[in-house]
Design goal:
globular; seven-stranded parallel beta sheet; 9 strands
C-alpha cells in the first residue's frame, strides 16, 4: 500500500536521484508547477532518460495540463517507457480528457487531479471514464483559488466528494494533497489525522522530512489493529453473518475495512516508521 508520495522537480535530475532513496513509497517527478516554461523541454528529456531504467520505488510523472503547449508532448514522450509506473494528469475537468489520454498512452496507469469546481462536480464521471484510470486526487492550491476558499474547513466538502466518487467507481482511496509548510510538522500531523477521518489513505509530500509524519498518521494504532484482527478472525471462523462479543454484527464492508487495517499493520511490522528530521 502506498502511503507516501514525494514530489520532485523534473528539471533537477540530481534531486530526483536523491528522492528515489529518500524513503517515500513512490516518487512523482513533476513537469508542471515545479518547472518554468523555459525548462519544460529539458525536464521532459531528463525524465525520459530517467524512465529508461528501473528504480527502487515506483516513479510517477505529473505531466503538464493537457491543454497547455507541453501536455501532448509529455504524453507522447513518456507513455511507452518501461520505468514509468503512472501518469498524473493535472487540471482534469471532464471524462473525455481521461479517455483521450488513455488512447495516447496504452497500458499506462492514469491518475486524475481535480483542481476546479467543475472537476469536483464531475468527479464520479471522471472516475469511471476509462479502465486505465487508477485514482483521483485533489489539487488543493488551484481549487482554493477557484472557489475563493479562505479556511481549511472550506475544502471538506470537495475532499469528501472525491473520496466518495473514488469508492463508488471502485478505485483506491485518494491520497491527500500536499501540505505546503515543510517546517510545521505538528500541523501536518493534525491535517493528516483530519484527512484520515475523511477517508483518505496516505499523502503527497514536497520534502522528505514530511514522510515519516505522514506514515505515522496513516498507520493504525495497537487498539485499532486488535479490533480489526478480532473481526477478521470471527469472519474466518463462521461464514455468513457473525456477531462479535460486544453485540456488533460483521458485514462485508466492516470486514473489508478490517482487512485493510490488518494489511497496514503488517506493513508497519516490516517497515517501521522513520524518525522525522528536525526542520532546519
Amino acid at each position: 500500500m502506498i502511503l507516501t508520495w514525494l514530489y520532485v522537480p523534473g528539471d533537477r535530475p540530481e534531486v530526483v536521484s536523491k528522492a528515489l532513496h529518500a524513503g517515500a513509497d513512490a516518487v512523482i517527478v513533476d513537469l508542471e508547477d515545479a518547472v518554468s516554461a523555459s525548462r519544460k523541454e529539458y525536464a521532459r528529456h531528463a525524465t525520459a532518460e530517467l524512465l529508461s531504467a528501473h528504480h527502487p520505488v515506483p516513479v510517477h510523472v505529473r505531466v503538464n495540463a493537457l491543454d497547455s503547449p507541453w501536455g501532448g508532448a509529455d504524453l507522447s514522450a513518456l507513455g511507452g517507457l518501461h520505468g514509468l509506473a503512472g501518469l498524473r494528469l493535472p487540471k482534469i475537468s471532464s471524462p473525455e480528457q481521461i479517455a483521450a489520454s488513455a488512447d495516447r498512452t496504452a497500458g499506462v496507469a492514469l491518475y486524475a487531479l481535480l483542481e476546479s469546481a467543475i472537476g469536483v462536480e464531475r468527479a464520479y464521471e471522471i472516475a469511471r471514464a476509462h479502465p486505465a484510470l487508477r485514482g483521483l486526487s485533489l489539487g488543493e492550491a488551484d481549487l482554493r483559488a477557484d472557489l475563493g476558499v479562505t479556511s481549511e474547513s472550506g475544502l471538506d466538502w470537495p475532499r469528501s466528494r472525491v473520496v466518495v466518487a473514488a469508492r463508488a467507481a471502485g478505485l483506491a482511496p485518494p491520497a491527500q494533497s500536499v501540505f505546503p509548510d515543510i517546517r510545521n510538522l505538528e500541523a501536518l500531523a493534525a491535517s493528516c489525522a483530519r484527512g484520515r477521518a475523511l477517508g483518505f489513505l496516505g499523502r503527497a509530500a514536497i520534502h522528505p522530512r514530511q514522510l515519516p509524519v505522514i506514515e505515522r498518521a496513516y498507520l493504525p494504532g495497537p487498539a485499532e489493529v486488535s479490533a480489526a484482527e478480532e473481526i477478521v478472525a470471527a469472519a474466518r471462523r463462521t461464514p455468513g453473518a457473525v456477531a462479535l462479543p460486544d453485540g456488533r454484527f460483521v458485514d462485508p464492508a466492516m470486514l473489508a475495512g478490517a482487512e485493510r487495517v490488518v494489511a497496514l499493520s503488517r506493513r508497519n511490522a516490516t517497515a517501521p516508521c522513520r524518525e522525522a528530521p528536525e526542520p532546519s
